[in-house]
């Protein structure tokens, strides 16, 4: 009762909106948003027991501004990925090359000849922007592109095998994160799953025995995110191509990450390249644009001309196509591959993957005193050797020696508070927790100044109080 009487002293919505303190807030965010925020702040004050003097117009305007500024910050704002996973699916996978960013920006700002041939003045095809590049880089006859590799697999299966069976090894019935399960995708593609072999061993005779007049295709899936080791046998894609062609059906090879170059050149383990998969006789090969390739999200389909043409005629293609922004970024990314000598310089994901531990260690030692100074004195910061991961299911067992800033807190609660505060920064910092400490793996850090500037926002004493 007492509260109710006291609350009458709160300024009205109109009074707050008309106050001098509120004017710049309204100027910035507009009357509608400010009015709604004022109502919310007032409702929150009313819901709390009155313990001290009530806020006036000025304090409420300040609270309204803080609320609107917070709302305005995008959850897609740039962050420092110090998780140690370079192609982190939850953090957007590949960071794009400057050339790709510029191309996408230009395509966004203006009209472009997306489906228009500037040479003839006639209608063009959107795949034309990538076809030659992809054929050059992979040795395939033809190429097309869809929204992501999951879509590439879906449309390829549906085109090659709807109403028929697809023969696949039990060792390759993969699940990729985000509910991409090969048996489910097959069902949606209208293809009947014909499993052969066992989890650890599949032989040519297993495929041959499963062939029938109902067979639409043979499917090979790169087991990108796991390894079957020990007593194992798999049929190579070269052998599978011979079996498929002997039976008059195509071989579809889903490479997953699929790289365009031999990564051993950069000290990474060798993944099958798309060119190899094509040369080994696969009729259609599918792979991602934003995994090891280092571009925006996309699914590439390369292979035999007649089959790519059939895929392009599939009505699903219209539902899965990519827009001008991504096409521009993809073309710019692929063009970088024509100059392999300078690729690691220009393609951020490759540059990060190729960074050597001593260089990262030196960076960590350089940053250590500055970071230690920006944290409360009861936190301990030290340099630690660690292992980075490639991510996105590529080379799952391969780790890269790296270096991290390891932060230990006086207790678990303080560590949690720090981690939350780092997430809440205008330019958030995301690390990983290991053995009760926060590890900031510096493999993906290039902007040291920006990183320190971002951390300095932590030093506001209330943040870690
Ligand atoms: C990652 C992956 C996919 C799905 O690709 P997205 O680009 O994530 O849609 C499909 N198949 C394999 C083998 C993969 O590794």
Structural commentary:
The protein is α/β, with parallel strands linked by helices and 465 residues long. It contains 20 helices and 15 strands. The strands form 4 sheets. Strands 2-10-9-8-7-3-6 form a 7-stranded mixed beta sheet, sandwiched between helices. Strands 11-12-15-14 form a 4-stranded antiparallel beta sheet. A two-stranded parallel sheet has the order 1-13. Strand 4 and strand 5 form a beta hairpin. Helix 4 crosses helix 5 and helix 18 packs parallel to helix 20. The model has no long low-confidence stretch (mean pLDDT 93).
Note the topology.
Layout: H1 2-7, H2 13-18, H3 23-29, H4 31-47, H5 57-72, E1 80-81, H6 98-109, H7 128-138, E2 142-146, H8 149-161, E3 165-169, E4 175-176, E5 180-181, H9 182-188, E6 192-196, H10 204-210, E7 215-221, H11 237-246, E8 251-256, H12 274-279, E9 284-288, E10 299-303, H13 305-313, H14 316-320, H15 324-336, H16 343-346, H17 348-354, H18 357-374, E11 380-389, E12 399-408, H19 412-423, E13 429-430, E14 432-434, E15 437-441, H20 448-456
The structure holds pyridoxal-5'-phosphate.
Residues 148-150, 153, 174, 176, 180, 221-222, 224, 254, 256-257, 288, 299, 393 line the site of pyridoxal-5'-phosphate.
| Chemical compounds bound to the protein | pyridoxal-5'-phosphate
Quaternary state of this entry equals single chain
Q: Overall 3D geometry?
A: globular
How many β-strand runs? 15
Helix content: 40-55%
**Order of strands in the sheet with the most strands?**
2-10-9-8-7-3-6
Q: Give the rounded overall mean pLDDT.
A: 93
């Amino acid at each position: 009762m007492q509260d109710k009487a006291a609350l009458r002293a709160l300024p009205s919505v109109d009074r707050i909106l008309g106050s001098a303190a509120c004017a710049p807030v309204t100027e910035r965010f507009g009357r509608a948003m400010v009015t709604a925020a004022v109502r919310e702040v007032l409702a929150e004050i009313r819901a709390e027991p009155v313990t001290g003097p009530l806020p006036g117009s000025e304090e409420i305007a300040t609270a309204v501004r803080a609320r609107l500024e917070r709302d305005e910050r995008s959850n897609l704002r740039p962050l420092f990925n110090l998780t140690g996973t370079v192609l982190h699916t939850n953090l957007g996978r590949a960071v794009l090359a400057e050339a790709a960013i510029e191309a996408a920006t230009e395509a966004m700002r203006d009209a472009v000849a997306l489906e228009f041939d500037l040479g003839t003045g006639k209608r063009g095809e959107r795949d034309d922007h990538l076809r030659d590049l992809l054929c050059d880089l992979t040795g395939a006859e033809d190429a097309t592109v869809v929204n992501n590799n999951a879509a590439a697999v879906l449309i390829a299966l549906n085109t090659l095998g709807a109403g028929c069976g697809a023969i696949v090894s039990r060792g390759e019935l993969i699940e990729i994160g985000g509910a991409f399960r090969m048996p489910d995708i097959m069902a949606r593609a209208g293809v009947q799953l014909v499993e052969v072999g066992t989890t650890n061993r599949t032989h040519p005779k297993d495929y041959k025995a499963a062939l029938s007049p109902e067979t639409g295709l043979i499917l090979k899936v790169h087991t990108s995110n796991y390894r079957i080791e020990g007593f194992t046998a798999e049929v190579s894609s070269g052998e599978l191509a011979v079996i498929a062609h002997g039976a008059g059906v195509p071989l579809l090879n889903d490479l997953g990450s699929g790289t365009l170059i031999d990564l051993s050149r950069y000290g990474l383990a060798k993944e099958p390249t798309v060119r190899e998969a094509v040369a080994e006789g696969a009729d259609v090969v599918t792979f991602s644009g934003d995994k090891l390739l280092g571009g925006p999200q996309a699914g590439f389909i390369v292979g035999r001309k007649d089959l790519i043409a059939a895929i392009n005629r599939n009505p699903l293609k219209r539902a899965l196509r990519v827009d001008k922004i991504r096409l521009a970024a993809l073309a710019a990314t692929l063009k970088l591959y024509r100059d392999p000598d300078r690729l690691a310089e220009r393609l951020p994901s490759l540059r990060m993957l190729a960074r050597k531990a001593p260089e990262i260690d030196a960076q960590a030692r350089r940053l250590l005193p500055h970071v230690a100074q920006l944290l409360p004195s009861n936190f301990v910061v030290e340099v630690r050797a660690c292992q980075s991961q490639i991510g996105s299911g590529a080379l799952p067992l391969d780790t890269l020696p790296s270096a991290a800033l390891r932060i230990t807190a006086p207790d678990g609660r303080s560590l949690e508070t720090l981690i939350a505060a780092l997430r809440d920064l205008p330019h958030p910092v995301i690390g990983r927790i290991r053995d009760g400490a926060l590890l900031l793996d510096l493999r993906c850090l290039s902007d040291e100044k920006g990183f320190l500037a971002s951390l300095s926002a932590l030093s506001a004493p209330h943040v870690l109080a």
